[in-house]
Amino acid sequence: MAAAAAVRRLLRPSTSASVSNASRLLSSTSSPPPHRSPNTNSPVAFDWSDDDADNPATSPPPATAKNSELPPPYDPFSKKPAVTESSDPTNLQEIFHRMRTEGLTDYAIKMFDGLSKDGLTHEALELFAVIKDKGAMPDVVAHTAVLEAYANAGPAHWRDAVRTYDRMLASGVKPNAYTLAVLVRGLASSDRCSEAGRYLVEMLDRRMQPNVATYLSALEAYVRMEKVEEGKMLLETMKGKGFVPNEEAVCSASVKRGHVFRGVMNLLFGK
Length: 271
Description:
It is a single chain. By secondary structure, the protein is mainly α. It is 56% helix and 0% strand. The chain is globular.
């Protein structure tokens, strides 16, 4: 109850200026980002101009958001989704327009919700403490929002999601478990199983335990793409870093039919 009350206070709308402050994270900056802590609030650049010829057709352009009202206070006990998803996740132009005009508060709520459900309440409250103390969004929210937009847009944008993550690290912004879970699931859904496995291992290297939905998405991709032996190698690497799969959780989270389910169960538990 104390955590819920704290979040309500942090998200209670008081002035439209907070939306403007949050939206500055999507503004462009020409100078290289200075060294800063993982929870800074300086502007974030998403400029693919120095990338290869396969640049994304739609990238988040620099813009200044208009003032708008904040959403109602977040209630973690509500069964309603934390954020209403876009009706068309492939319409990146619309999604980035909403980020610029409506701000990033919804994305911060979604991140808080994801961290809290994974039992990472301390990290979730630290995230909102930055908003409360400095009056602007942490950089990790802005980068993850763009990354998630690309991850949800389908296989054509998996490289854009990885580029966004790489730029996040290059900017000195530390990802959290929600960020990496979004990246792993997005790559897995695009059948990029090797890349998804790479970031699963990175989660463990960062002392983050992937939740069942995250590691299942990657292992299901290995089975779906008929790369079971590679999946076994990944699993051995993960176990060597302390990963222990939860059979009950896997059964609860999986559709208990079809060759993919059987393949994943055999991969994880030899069944």
